Amino acid sequence: MKRRNFILLTGVATGMVIIPPSLYFISPDLKNYAKMLINRELGYLKLEPKGLDLYIEDYFKNSGNNTLSTIKWKVLYFLKYDSKNAERINDLLKYYLLSTDFFINQMDVSKPVNYIRMFDPYKSPIPNPYSYILLPAI
Amino acid sequence: MKRNHYDLVVVGTGFASSFFLKKYLSKVKEDKNVLVLERGVFYPHAERLKVRKGEQTPYQKNEIVWNDLVKNFNPKKDWHFTTGFGGSSNCWWGCTPRFMPSDFKMKSLYGIAQDWPISYNDIDQYYDEAEAIMSISGPDETPFPKKSKYPLPAHKFSAVDEIMHKKYGNQYISQPTARASRATENRNACMASSTCGVCPVNAKFHIENSGITAYEDPRVEIVYGAQVYSMETENNVAKKVCFVKDGKDYKVSAEVIALGANPFFNSNILLNSGDKNKFTGKGFGEQMGIQVLIYLDNLSNAGGSTWVNANGYMLYDGNHRKDFAACLIEVNNAPFIRFEKDKWLNMASFRLVFEDLPEDSNYIKTSENKLMPEVHFKGRSDYALKAFENAKKQLPDILSCLPVEKLKYLEPFPNEGHIIGGTRMSLDANSGVVDKHLIHHQYRNVFVLGAGAFTTFSPANPSLTLSALSLYAADKMF
Predict the structure, then answer these.
(1) What phi and psi values does residue B351 have, to the nearest 5 degrees?
(2) Range from A10-24, A26-40, B346-360, B455-469 carrying the lowest mean pLDDT
(3) Does residue B64 sit within a domain?
(4) Which candidate from B49, B53, B193 shows the least CB-CB separation from A128?
(5) Least CB-CB distance to B193: which of A97, A121, A138?
(6) Is residue B255 part of a domain?
(7) Keyword Flavoprotein, does the record have it (chain B) (predicted)?
(8) Backbone φ and ψ of B328, nearest 5°
(9) Does the pLDDT of residue A18 top 50, yes or no?
(10) pLDDT confidence tier of residue A63, bands split at 50, 70 and 90
């Protein structure tokens, strides 16, 4: 681990030094960190906010919302991890885009991105975006 | 059971048993009696779908996990299989490339392992027949010899596939597959869900939707919940099949026995029966699969039409197999997404599938529980691992026709969903367990079906070949 990351991580884990204590104690829970991570990487899209909140609720429905989970997501956010170097973030973002109308709208960045329901071939009508059903081979 | 004695007792209802039984019934007289012993239940596809949709169904209790059925001594290695009517046709992903002719001649061509006692040409017509039964979708040109056309048209190429096919011709083809490209009498067309174990739209072939009517034939009686663990033998003839049903032991007498369970249980049955062949249970394994993600600049890879859209043979055949394994490339449409603007689908996903060797250090043996075999898998051969190192060197050049930004290799998969070997086919009992007709060298009234009989593994998926072998064996012997 790089020295700078180690220092930052220590700060996050203990709520000291690098992250201002006030931010730590009043910081939002893991769902907000997850939302902030999505906004940071996909901020160039018009993400419909209520749908994004609903997605976050659905995504974390079956996972823990405890102190340890919060710290993990907080670490990812403050250490500036992104989808390229953290599988957890990659998964969060991937399922978000797959669960919206983004690919159905042919990846048109001028349109708002609306959450439909969690991507699941058994429960959701949203096709795999790599399929010719949505997009032809160019 | 209606009788104490049957002309044929078949164990299992998966690919191996079903294709064997279909051919057998087409060749024998109407007065024959067949008993089929299936350890699981009939668990319909529609009910499996309900479970995946989160709906209630009384069938849910039949979602049995593979590692509750065997004693696996390597926690890093998984061996997925499904029990119940249709066996692993209920969990396979429908990939059906044929083996290459060279796969049957590994010793004479490359000095590796053993030759099979049969050649590609011996089973060519049975490949055709199995492909017809499964309504395989596939291309007109293939790297393996094929005289007939596939029953259904090939799946559509993605953008990457188009470029690769243009460069490599029949070395890069639309994958032959049992995921239907068009609706058939019993199946819908594939929707490229990339979730094929239980197909969300019933596009994949499995025994229930196969149109195989063997189990409704008046000559056939099927008993569910029958766990076969042994045979009683006398003077090298198998006389009775022993099984447990509802906690009670049963025996049934048979003229001929066909073991069509998977290699773990076929080996367990033979070993519990006193089989002393030194190869029984030995040398089982499967291919090694490693995923590589190909990041593309300015090329969206949309437009594919099924889970594995294409197969690449550029690392398969050749003299390198003297030193390291063949590799079959599976090009899949798993929804890997990028998040940089305008690059969301600029990604190709190749699964490198390497053959492995039947090494005796990987073996199946009996345990104190007669129903539960021990599975001992030490690990991959250097032959397979060396092939991966070679693939990493070769891949940049192979992909030079694509605008590649970078390659990212993922960790090897804990399983490929195949169980191969354990009852290998050979010319004689000194070099294997069954002969070229899948008949046990010692017990001449016992067929040992399935991928357990493969002499060597090939990188190609096994289900089509083991189905063709069942047709071949039944056709030649009845």
Answers:
(1) -105, 120
(2) A10-24
(3) yes
(4) B193
(5) A121
(6) yes
(7) yes
(8) -105, 130
(9) no
(10) low
Residue in B closest to A127 by C-alpha: B193
Buried-exposed string A43-70: b where 16+ CB fall within 10 A, e elsewhere: eebebbeebbebbbeebbeeeeeeeebb
The model carries a pTM of: 0.92
Q: Which of residues 76-115 of A touch B (CB under 8 A)?
A: 83, 93-94, 97-98, 102-103, 107, 109
Q: CB-based burial of residue B173 (10 Å sphere; 0-12 exposed, 13-18 middle, 19+ buried)?
A: buried
**Residue written as tokens 């993600």?**
B293
Torsions phi, psi for B219 (to 5 deg) = -80, -10
Mutation for testing the B interface, residue in A130, A133, A135 having most B CBs under 10 Å:
A130
Residues of A in contact with B200 (CB under 8 A): 121-122
Residue pair B280/B273 in contact by the 8 Å Cβ criterion: no
Number of domains in chain B: 1
CATH of the domain at B243: 3.50.50.60
Q: Which residues of B touch A (CB under 8 A)?
A: 49, 52-54, 156-159, 161-162, 191-195, 200, 300-305, 333-337, 339, 341, 344-345
Q: How confident is the model over B324-366, as pLDDT tens digits?
A: 999 999 999 889 999 999 999 999 999 999 999 999 999 999 9
Whether B288 is covered by a domain: the verdict is no
Domain membership of residue B349 (yes or no) is no
Mutation target vs A (from B337, B347, B350; most A CBs, 10 A cutoff): B337
Domain housing B473: 5-154+191-283+418-477
